[in-house]
Amino acid sequence: MNLRRSAPPAPEQRLLTRAAAALACRIAAGFLAALALLGFCAYRVVLDEQRTQARDQLTAALRFGHPTEATPCVWLFELDGTTVLHPPQIPAGFPWKSAVSQAADGAPAIQTHVTVTGTDYDVMTVRHGGTVRQAVFDTWYQQADLDHLVRALVLVGLLGVALATIVGALLGRRSIAPLGDALDRQRRFVADASHELRTPLTRLHTRAQMLLRWHREHPPSDGGSDRLTSELTAMVQSAAELNDVVEDLLMSAGMRTDPARCEEFDLATLAAEVIEAERPRLGARVVALNTVGELLMIRGARSPVRRMIATLIDNAVSHTEPTGRIELSVRQAGRGIVELEVTDDGTGFDPADRERIFERFAQSGSPGPHHFGLGLALAREIVADHGGTIRAVGRPGAGATFTVRLPATA
């Protein structure tokens, strides 16, 4: 369901679509509940009216009727010893002997419902002196009216639910559309602001690097060289971190799977390229790439997937000792699935944070000043945008494993 002509990126679009669908379902469910309540009330009212009508018919027949007279749907029997008076045509099984015996023994008049040869009857039996009178009422027409009422309620309910679903879908689209527009405006603002910040930050980073290089080549003679070198190095590092944040914001603002950018490529080959590009940052860390199978092909945008792999490697490097070990595995995982796994022997994380680490700038639920940035959140968006899943497993001090599953090309 397209909520707007200019749709937001796929993950947010799916959330908005689900929200609109949930709203439509709630409206339809509310209408169905209201209709069911009204239908039940109508059914009970009609059923009570029919029971009252049957009781009145039986009472009138017992009080004023004559057994030899034929009345539609009503039969009157009069038993005096062995003599039985009744209309010319009577239903099979009557008079109802058990009720006659009870009335003859002095039981009060009671209306009972019996079924004989597949037909339902209401029976009332009374005793007057030595005579027992029994009235029988055929409820077939009443049951037919109830059946028609139920069918009508079901038909109206189905049509009403369909109409309520359509109306709910339209209302859902109208309700969610402003939120989608707000997301678009927010994303454009982030993109514009990040773009404007990138140039001065790049200049700041470059000038800080040049100043640090010049200072190392021309140390001062007053003995403050070490302190100044430390401060300049910190400035260069901070400028680099700001650049990374801006790049992440730009990627987040432009996150989408553009069909024009999609292509088929080997995930193992791309992972090897990312490792080679990250080699200068690894230091003495050991990074091993294990591939199982050949041509582990997926379809998607190569640049975001490269960024996702680089983010997972960067996360492993950041939480691994300088002499630690990082392993990347790319393999076939079931039919139509390619799996990328990044494992490290670093600091790990609290298992309670396995979902929170993918939230933007979230705080850890464990004690301590732990917080998560934007990188893993963007990695999950990239994976979701390509129709895949990502999960993390780890323990404090025992390393972490990130597993990405992406659809393979046919």
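The above is record 1. Record 2 follows with the same two-line structure.
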Amino acid sequence: MPDDAARPHADAPAPESPRPEEPHDNLTVTAHELALDGETLRYTATAGTYVLREEPHGETYARSTPYAELFAVSYVVETDQDPSERPVVFAFNGGPGSSTVWLHLGLLGPRRVLAGDAASPAAPPYALAENRETILRDADLVCVDAMTTGFSRPSPGAAPDRLHGFAADRDLIASFILEWLTRHDRWTSPIHLLGESYGTTRAAAIAARLMDRYFVATSGIVLLSPVLDFGTVFFTPGNDAPFLHYLPTYAAIAHAHGKHPGRSLEQVVDEAEAFAEQEYPGLLAQGLRLPLEERADAAERIGALIGVDPAWVERADLRPEHLAYLAELLRDERRVVGRIDGRFSAPAGDGNAAQMETDPSIDQLAPAYTAGINRYLRHDLGVVSDVVYEIMSERVHPWSYREFENRSVEVASDLARALRKLPALRVFVAHGYHDAATPFHASEHVLAHLAIDRDDYEERIRIAYYEAGHMMYCHEPSRRQLAEHLAAFVRGD
């Protein structure tokens, strides 16, 4: 019989389980050079995950605990300029669920993907090139990936879905910005926020949050392909606004596919906008009261503008939904049209499908970005990770908008409040004519209805248009033009 001394007593404490390893930053720092206009741009790249901590809420105080490991790539240029005076651009894409690979390797960073364009998308093997139009000429750059995109993940033991929502995402990125400013001693640098798509929703919300909560001033906000009020673009029963705001985009896409021979894009867009603002609202408002003859005339007018059979428009009750339109425009050719960029098209799997099956613009662009970011991070920046770099992830859904229960999701009020509180804040807005994800007319409408003075609208908000889609930088002339506009904006020209 074994010795009693070898057996634990009943009242002895249970052995402690090993404590999980405390998460820590996982960053690589590399030095680089880029030849620009006869001079050499020297910069340091810092890439990897930053551990973010929070002070817990409760009746008793406890030490801050890690809750997120956010992936970012920072570029800081060696310059004679005082770093405290050099602007810093914090950039992020949207989705929700998209990493910032698109802005990083498509427009802003020192390297860019050669992804091709609508007429000639790139094919493997994909390549990277030096980006001589990089924003690093005029500002330092931080490309940050939202939670569960890129290499960003919750800290071990933290619930990932807690950070998948409007307010949590806003607060997470705002906290990262404060952390970055502290670590890099850049608290007096001019801060610029640059977002694309849902990233513009995020940018407006963060600018307001930084000021409302922390009294941190943003100098500039760049909104690429913005969505500031979801009620203007989401097709929901009883809401006619999206049909009005999408019509000029449909007309522009029709022009791109040869439906308006002999006419310029500007002529077509001007006519469509005039119709969408003046006649179209009254026609839709009448509903079943609209006389049949007027209804038929309206279908003829709309069909001519957007390049489809008027009978299809009439069957759609004069309200063509965007996914249905993108399947209909080139149906005779058995092709579907891109949502992110309406200049793209691809063969239709089902020639009778009511809606597009997939987005040819994403299908034809994403593989080059996927290959490019994975090679660039590992080969050029020395990043090592045991998880997949999530270019775009469905894992962030369902995305919480609980703050907007029973009302439209909107950040126009955040943007207006930031403009009212910060007299030096300026806004640059970039629209792609062929963007069927966030139509330019919806953005024009929201910006024109901001709760700010007319003088502020006219003097502090710049709006530019490009003959491309949502990611206008995949169109080479638009990329160069946009890069020039961004540089001037950041410089304050």
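The CA atoms of residues 318 and 478 lie 33 Å apart.
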